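Task 17 of the worksheet. Students: predict the tertiary structure of the chain below and write it out as structure tokens. Keep your answer in the requested format; marks are given for formatting as well as content.
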Amino acid sequence: MPPRRKAQSPKPKAPPAVPAATAVPAAWIRTASDQAAVDAGCTFDLAAAERVRSFFAKFLCHSKGAFAGQPFILLDWQWDEIIAPLFGWLRPDGTRRFREAYIEVAKKNGKSALCSGLALYMLVGDGEQGAEVYSAAADREQASIIFNEAANMASASPALKKHLMITPSTKHIAFPRTRSRFKALSADAYSNEGLNASAILFDELHAQRDRKLWDALKFAGAARRQPLNLSITTAGYDKKSICFERHEYAEKIISGSVIDTRCLAVIHAAEETDDPYVESTWRKANPSLGATITVESMAEAAAEAQANPSSLNAFLRYRLNIWTAQDVKWLDMQTWKLGERPIDVASLQGRACWAAIDLSSKYDLTALTLAFPEEMRDDKGQPATGYILLCHFWLPRATVEKSDLYKAWAAQGLLHVTEGNVIDYDFIRAFISGPQVYGAQPAVLDRLKAIGLPEQGLVEQFSVQEMAFDPYNATQLSLQLAGDGIPMVEFRQGFISMNEPAKELERCHLAGLLVHDNPVLTWCAENVSIAVDPAGNIKPVKPEPDSADKVDGVTTSTMAIGRAMFSDQGGSVYDDEGLMVL
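Model answer:
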């Protein structure tokens, strides 16, 4: 990963007087793109930048938090890395050098307030006749944040209030003197592509569900003399998004691998290899630490993340500005992999276990987990009940052939392949119940054995007490398995059914009480996120509904543990929630 501009970068001293507008003080030349701008004849006008700083201090006050009612004095990093470069660098024709800016920093560092102040400056202080300033965001609520703060600042400023017309209901501020306006836009309401924008301020670009709004507004300022498109965001988790595209491009500008004299790139983030629980790491991602965010609050958030893996990804993203694989990561992989060790399957023969199956669509991954309760010692050396997880996975050959990863797993026997373009549910049934379900045709049995059908079904090898299943996609097979003598239990994958089993899996995971040996299950564990409902119930979910990353093995492990953990209670605590035994 290319180096980022660090929070502790030296602050430029006041540049010396420049005898002519042809020299740029060395303090402002920080990237290869800056040097290219100098070579192209760009200059640096400190007085132009100071006018913006003076506007903030003279006309704007903070409206909330610890700074409420105080003049908006730019923090050192806001001035040094954003305002001064944006408004100080000039092209040979006297217009601003930068037409685009990508600012990425952790939450609570004053991003939205800075954007609100910039929106007002671009509306009344930029000297643009008929200025059109827009704040853009993924939805109405997010789009309102910059507008509401700008409206509060304007209302609290006697000098601005008497010149502006503020209409909160339509998220609109007008400056009649220059026929200018500021309006909030959101992706779920935007439809007009006929804008003539002088400035666009994208708030939390990572939250954009697609790139439609970005693309529609990208050239909205093409007719302006010096338009500005500024994105300010926290890291996200969707690496196919427009935000990650801009993030990678900004990284390249900072490292010098891309020369772009028109785009300002600023990223404050910890590295993935940094210790997330120490103050030196926090400062990399939080240039406002000690001002808009306290060390104490960071320490509290770090302690929660360290104690609760389901909080870790949120801490990494929001507090350390690290792009993560999921929105809310559930399982700590360093801890998870401690439980990945060979399982002596022969020693489990005849052992009581609880099973769960998650049938895919015909083209996707089907998973089955057998959970064997086992007396173990936890991470503190105390005796406790844990689980040995024995997993099986199936895919149709046509799907396997499209993925090198699937082909490698299939070659290692970690993934069972059924012939053809769709999952062969009859093969899965025979794998579970035994080959006898096919009858005694030797040719059929030989073919099935050739593609991985064991001589004995799972229920012949192990004492399967119950098999849980989600009724979605599973009606026919579940009835067939019930007919084969397997107690089938309907187990819906909602919050109420999954909450306690998920918390039991999490407890065992953290205490070192899970043993597993299938890398496909580990892949699922790397992918899985956790969803939380308003009551605090949890369930494992995919990182995105349409994601190609699978989590089925974790889902079936959760279901199997859920049935096992209540086996001694004469039934499930969920019997009243619609669970049905076939």
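Marker's comment: Residues 341 and 517 are 5 Å apart (CA to CA). The chain has three domains: 26-267, 279-324, 334-572.
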